[in-house]
Amino acid sequence: MCEQIGTSRATLRIALAELEKEGLLASSSAQGRVIAGTAPLADKGRVLFVARGRDWIQLPAWNRLWYVFKELAGRAGYACELVLGEASEDVLDRADAIIYSGGANAPDRRLAAYAARRGNVIGVQESHVGLLPYVVALDNRAAGRLAAQTLLAAGYQRPALLRRDGYFGFEYREEGFCDELARALPGYEVPKLHMLGMSSLAFIRDYLSKIDDFLQQDMDALFVAGDGMIDLFYSSFSPTRRIPDDFGFIALASSYECLIHQPPITAVSHATTGVAQAIVQLLGSLRNGESAPALTLLAPTLHVGATVRPAATSVSSTTSAVPRRRAHTRKKNTKEKD
Predict the structure, then answer these.
(1) pLDDT value at position 33?
(2) What percent of the chain is predicted at pLDDT more than 90?
(3) Chain centroid to CA 133: how far?
(4) Which uninterrupted H or E stretch holds 286?
(5) CATH classification of 140-269+308-330 is 3.10.450.50, yes or no?
(6) What would the CATH number be for the domain defined by 46-138+271-300?
(7) Burial class (CB in 10 A: 0-12, 13-18, 19+), 55
(8) 94: buried, middle or exposed (CB in 10 Å: 19+, 13-18, 0-12)?
(9) For the chain, what is the mean pLDDT?
């Protein structure tokens, strides 16, 4: 398979493990890995996956959750349908259960009022706690702690945080990251690099205006807590305006996003498959009239790429910001290599 696909054994093992987690492959000592059976099960009802709109479902985390959930729920016997934007009560009434990936603003509170009457709505963000009867989500504080632990284990001593406003989960990741560093590095104040704007173009402009300031700060590693912000470092302009290679770099991303970047990034996962599996399990409990937890938080996992290296060989504790900037300038017109 490595020869056919043109990839390494390590990358292939990761891919096969992901397919097994998603239920697409099965393994046994007698047969090895085989494609899992796809025989349709008995109809268990209609499930709506409601997203805030087309722009929302295009975001990598929610797009991947929808497709993984649709596959797993379909195998379990549920008919799944994607709804973009606000759904009328007539549409909601025809569903046996509703999965909601939107925010917690005024229009979404109307869904919360509906959920209070029906009790069949499952949210997938921690901000839905108290608004919706059931929530299944990534434990974002744990994601921040895992990022800090990973950088500390590699020997980095001056990690910084790249953050943005918006989703509650970003704040939870920041809390977890800073709390873990405060425990391990008493007295250390985490530099917080605040990006503005609500569009990719706005982020890029803000990044370009601040990159020189970033390079002057006393930091040796960076945690990017906002979804999608990895594009700031690996888009078309990164060969000329980038964080230096001697930084440790860790982001929030799926295993797919982690592996397709060159070099592959070290990433804390969104636990997409785990969230989808937990939702399907919760649907089964609700359908059978069993008691179910109001909140289920999924632990994040780590996808190890090339951007967190042992600091003993790549980062010196006495290295100043000026030499790093010179290395950055020297590489401006050099083709990036893995």
Answers:
(1) 80
(2) 32
(3) 24
(4) helix 272-287
(5) no
(6) 3.40.50.2300
(7) exposed
(8) exposed
(9) 79
